[in-house]
Structures are given as structure tokens and as C-alpha cells.
Amino acid sequence: MTSRLKVLTIEDDAAIRCGIVDALTFAGYDVIDAADGTSGERRAIEDQYDLLLLDLGLPGVAGLDILRQVQRLRPDRPVIILTAKGEEADRVQGLRSGADDYVVKPFSVKELLARIEAVLRRAIPKPEQPFAQWQQGILDFERRELRYHDQSRTELSEKESELLQYLIANSGRAISRDELLAGVWQISPQGINTRTIDMHIARLREKLRDNPESPTTLLTVRGKGYMWMAIEHRRAHESHG
Amino acid sequence: MTSRLKVLTIEDDAAIRCGIVDALTFAGYDVIDAADGTSGERRAIEDQYDLLLLDLGLPGVAGLDILRQVQRLRPDRPVIILTAKGEEADRVQGLRSGADDYVVKPFSVKELLARIEAVLRRAIPKPEQPFAQWQQGILDFERRELRYHDQSRTELSEKESELLQYLIANSGRAISRDELLAGVWQISPQGINTRTIDMHIARLREKLRDNPESPTTLLTVRGKGYMWMAIEHRRAHESHG
DNA sequence: AAACGTCGTTACAAACTCGTTACGCTCGAG
DNA sequence: CTCGAGCGTAACGAGTTTGTAACGACGTTT
Lengths: 241, 241
Fold this sequence. Notes:
The structure is a homodimer.
Chain A: E1 6-10, H1 14-26, E2 30-34, H2 37-46, E3 51-54, H3 63-73, E4 79-83, H4 88-96, E5 101-104, H5 109-123, E6 131-134, E7 137-140, E8 145-148, E9 153-155, H6 158-169, H7 177-183, H8 196-208, E10 218-221, E11 225-228, H9 231-238
Parallel strand pairs in A: 1-2, 1-3, 3-4, 4-5
Antiparallel strand pairs in A: 6-7, 7-8, 8-9, 10-11
Helix pairs in contact in A: 2-3, 6-8
Chain A binds a DNA duplex through residues 157-160, 194-196, 198-203, 205, 212, 220, 222-223.
């Protein structure tokens, strides 16, 4: 349930708007959109979003007026102007008015996405929380430590941390040892026979305080590999004994 | 008189470089510049500046390598790429590599200034806090001293104070020794092997009365670096019982 | 000159990491 | 049931990283 970032798109041309919505959605953003200046301004002021993609030259309210309102009422909200008005004077005016970037149509979707990322990198303090949690507490990969609900804590080693991050990033799926060797150890598992991974899992289970007899968090899938059982997936699976 | 913002320009073409320097100076910035990749990289790592204007396609070190080093060693320094390489792929790569903006030559000086303003608007250098507190007392960076709750006090040396300020300004994140060498000692850590930082940390811990066995304020993150644990972060993390 | 504070190096001990090996247990196909 | 492959883990050890005592060069203060 990594909270996705939300983009508000104000754009009157239906084709372009749909294209943007599709591209952003595909790129993993939540998107809300408005097709004219009047509704756009309302949404820009009232709605919850992390970035505003703003067309100038809209029917209804002028784009720059929306920008001004946003500056006044939602001052930290980042804005990228996306418009056909590509004259130098327009670009300068747009940026001077407080926009974070100014992209001229026709534009490259890839570049737009890259620019959105660049703006969000600066404007949104912490795009995603670095924490995960499990039964017994919280995982902090920045500090590479586990914090238990009882306030005590343990450190993770570098490899333990990487392994755990990999498993969590692929939670709910059994990961083979070969995949882990490739993904975490960055080595091609050419018929290599090693118990390293098993050892790391054992040490992780100990730190996670997971019962090795019947682990509930870091599962063994015999013949397949290991699997992280995310807390949010648990409920569905628990109901079978 | 608020101190003027300083821009570092790395650009090999003398004409363009002078044009930029003049324009930025006229616009009220302090400007320092480098004419090739090698000296540019050194300045980008060692010098003090608020924004980096970076040309790609330099003689000497490749521009993107400089960008990578800046990302690693001066992580919150904003960068605008300013180059003739205008292909979509280049622009996307530059932005994805962490640049804040990407301006293609030939460019409009007015627009460049507007974009610089836009980037600086978000990446304002945070004013250094003259005070901080920790478990055992209060830190006064103006007097470079520690005041303990029991009324006694100790002085910090110059380097100790700078190091501590850097760590506090980046609290909650593990700072690598290389980043500290760049940010506090202003030297490029090219394969340097030194225990200086460890010694300063040890002396700081002693003055902070932090237990070196399990420090609670100035943490070691093995293999990564050191991290200041701010008092205000402490509560948020612990409260989960 | 002597005493002092700073800050870097060196050297060594201690702690930690992470892989291997060995051995015992478990599961499940036959 | 038996047996072998798969798994858990204790024990070990080479290599790496960290803490810090001791020291020396240097500049400042007394």
C-alpha cells in the first residue's frame, strides 16, 4: 500500500488529456483531471494532489490565473506548465509566475515523466516512507535496523538488509535461491551450490523473531525458495487453519 | 543584506562561459567557473556553491560522471544541465540521473535565469540552525559549545562543530565518510584512506556523553557512515507500542 | 620557552560480516 | 515404511570495518 503520488491534469484537448492520463497512470501515478479552466481552478484549489500539470490557453479561466491562485492558496504545490504557447516570453513568464517547469507541446512523454520526477524529487519531501512493518515491529532500512514494539532494536547487516528488501519488494511470491543470488548477490548462479542464503534467512528469522518451526513472516516454500508474507496480505491467507 | 547565491558553471566553450558568467553576475549571483571536466569535477565536489550549471560533452571527465559524483558527495546540491546534446534520450537520461532541469543550447538567457530561479525556489539552501538539543543538553554553534543539563559545559573545536552541524543538517540519514570529506573537509575523497572522521566522531561522542557501545545520538551505520538521531525523530519512531 | 589545543596519522584490538562445512532433521515420492 | 533431496543451524574463520590510545606536527597562548 505504498501511497502513490497524485497528479492533477488541467487540459482542455481531450486527446492530449487522455494521453497524459494514460501515460501517468501507466507510470504509477494516481491521476485526476479537469477539462476546462473553471472546474480546473476549483480542483486545483480544493483537491488533494502532489503535482499540477497545467495547460495555458484554456476555455474559461486563464491558465496563469489558476497558477496565481495555486501560488496563493497552495503555495508548496509544484506546478508544471504544459502548453502550446512556446514563445520565450511565455516560458519566462510562466516560470517567473512560480511554475517549477515549462514544457512545450508537442512534447515527449518520456521527457515529461522525467521532468515530473525531477520536480517531485525536490518538492515532495519524502515520496515514499522508508519503513515497512511486520508482526513484531518496524523495519527501517535507512538505519538498517529493526525496531520491535517493545522498544528494543537490532541492527541488520548490509546483506541481510538487501536480502530483506528484495524479498519485501517481491512479497507474496516465492523467490528461488537462484533469483536471490542474481538479484541480491549479483552473481549468475551457474550450478553453484551454497547454503549462504539459507544462513542469511536463518539469521533474519532470528532477528525478526519469527518462529523457525512454522515461520509466519519469512516463509519457506520447499523446493521453490523463500517468501515474505506482507502484513497486509496476511488476513486473506490466515483463514485456513 | 542576505548573502548572494553562488553558481558554479562548468563549461568548456569560452564564449558561452563568459556569457553565462556575465549574465549571472548581472542578475546578482556570485559565479565561479571551470573550463574542463577535471577541474570542474574537483570544484563541484570541493567548492561551496548553491547551484551547479553543468555542460555535458566536456574535455576531461564526462559531464554525467560529474553529475553522479555530485549526487553521491553533495546530495542536495541542485544541478541544471546546459548542453548542446538535445536528443530526447539525452534529456531523459540527464533528468533521470538527478538533474533538476535540462536546458539545450542555444538557449535564451532570460529563460535560463527564469529556470535557475525556479530550481532555487525549491532547493533553497537551508539556513544553518545555531542551536540544537540532544539527550544531555543543548548545542550552541555560535559559541561552539555544549551545555549539559547539569549546567556544566564543554567547547567544540572548529572541525567538530562543522562536522556536527553537517550531520545535524542531514539528520536521520546515514552520511558516508566520503560525503563528509567532501562536505565538511572540502576535499575529493579519491581513494583516500583516513581515519580522521572516525577520530572526530569518537571525540564528539565523548563530549556528547554518548555511550560508544550503543550510541543513541551519533549512530554508526556499519559500511555506510554516521548518522545523527535528532530528538524530534526519536519520539515518532519509538511510539509504536 | 613552555604549555596548550587542534587535528591528522598510525597501530592495534575488538567487533562484525558473511561465506563454508558439517551434521541432524523433515518432507514426500515410491 | 525407506531414502534421498531439501532445509535449519551450530561452529568456524578469513577478511573487513570500527573504536581509540598514543603520538607528532603545527599554530596559539601564556
